């Protein structure tokens, strides 16, 4: 069956040729925009990521960190030869990472719908939550699931941001400046 479909559909392009065509068209889109400073460069990179993410359903590429884009911009500006500039751009685009679901998001998406149904059934018997009966299940369960996923994602990002902003406590940054602290002993008790 696969061989017969190959005859109808054609052989297709090898992946390296396909990638070179894609990167060429992306670079042409990139160079069509006038880039004067870092903000223009960053906006052009984000536009390209938007194009990639909208063209590939099911796959989503994360935007690189600002520091990585700044490094690429410096390297791109330092190159005079257009071929070298294109090489810097292609190398940068190839390093962009595919977004992956983490376990927390996956577990939240799996556990929340049955938990929402159980919470709704339990809430129907409480006098203060009797209005919950008026909300149909097809509206209640997806809205609770989406809210739980949003909260999970936001808390994950806030946690990652706080971890990045705190210095590593295991290794102090000023190792050579640490002074030993003398032990303090308690004075003896006075005699009675």
TrEMBL record:
From the UniProt entry, list the residue stretches annotated as the region Disordered. 160-192
State the superkingdom: Eukaryota
Q: From which source organism is this entry?
A: Theobroma cacao (Cacao)
Gene designation: LOC18611235
State what protein this is by name: Uncharacterized protein LOC18611235
Q: Which Pfam families match?
A: DUF7874
């Amino acid at each position: 069956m696969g061989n017969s479909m190959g005859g109808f559909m054609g052989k297709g392009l090898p992946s390296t040729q396909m990638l070179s065509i894609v990167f060429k068209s992306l670079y042409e889109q990139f160079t069509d925009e006038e880039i004067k400073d870092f903000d223009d460069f960053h906006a052009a990179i984000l536009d390209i990521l938007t194009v990639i993410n909208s063209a590939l359903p099911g796959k989503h590429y994360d935007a690189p960190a600002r520091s990585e884009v700044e490094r690429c911009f410096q390297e791109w500006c330092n190159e005079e030869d257009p071929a070298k500039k294109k090489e810097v751009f292609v190398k940068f685009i190839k390093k962009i990472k595919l977004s992956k679901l983490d376990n927390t998001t996956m577990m939240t998406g799996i556990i929340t719908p049955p938990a929402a149904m159980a919470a709704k059934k339990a809430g129907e018997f409480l006098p203060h939550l009797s209005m919950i009966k008026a909300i149909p299940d097809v509206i209640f369960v997806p809205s609770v699931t989406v809210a739980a996923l949003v909260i999970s994602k936001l808390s994950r990002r806030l946690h990652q941001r706080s971890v990045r902003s705190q210095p590593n406590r295991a290794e102090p940054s000023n190792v050579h400046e640490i002074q030993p602290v003398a032990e303090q002993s308690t004075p003896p008790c006075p005699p009675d």
